[in-house]
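W.,

You were right to be curious about this one. When I first looked at the sequence I had no strong expectations either way, so I just let the prediction run and decided to look at it fresh. Below is the sequence, 153 residues in total, followed by the output.
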Amino acid sequence: MANTYSQISIHAVFAVKQRENCITKDWRDDLHKYISGIIAGAGATPLAVGGWLDHVHIFFGMPVTTSISNFMSIVKANSSKWINEQGFVKGKFQWQSGYGAFSFARSQRDVVIKYIMNQEEHHRQKTFREEYLKMLSDFMVEYDEKYLFEFYD
């Protein structure tokens, strides 16, 4: 797209359907690498991919050629297809519908990257519910409890 420039850094979070703790250590890194490839293939700049047993965080430079909604559909559809093709879980793997997406200034990138790459340590102290609700609060996002992820703490 000629003469169109942007610098938009997005931190997005999405969760496993029924919040199963199925993203195990033996294939988690491969999933994160694969998702990084999806991000790059969709025209974005992957900055960090991490997560825990039941959710994934991605941080990327948003391309000007798509919406966040379309971009997240691409990431979630392609990654769930790959997980199913690899046979990492019994039955059919699915992500929950929806996601959280938060924008950050370029000067905040290092902090966000560090946060995403330290998810294992982070979740020794906080549940995913606590983490997600804090993100919504920090960004002053109004929400209806009935439309949040399914939380099974």
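Here's what jumped out at me. The two ends are 45 Å apart (CA to CA). And, maybe more interesting for your project: The CA atoms of residues 13 and 57 lie 5 Å apart.

Coffee later to discuss?

I.
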